[in-house]
Please model this.
Amino acid sequence: MAIDKATVAKIARLARVRVGDAEMTSLAGELSKILTFIEQLDEVDAAGVEPMTSVVQMGLRRRPDGVTDGDKRDDVLKNAPDAMAGFFTVPKVVE
Model:
């Protein structure tokens, strides 16, 4: 697929990248080579190949989902300057 200068200018404008007129021709050639390579990937038969999330297949390490530390509300509220009915008490800041 060949890309012309007008397409390069449009891509540059959309990407908000300033490209000078001198660079347009070389950039058009580079983008054309990239698209040609991508078109070659369409020729690969990938039927039956499962998608990969990583090069190395490995499972996520997971810990058991259980409460290991809790029910210490009273201990936590001891650090509060003011607490009432099991909650932190803070001064009103919005009227």
Summary: The CA atoms of residues 7 and 35 lie 13 Å apart.
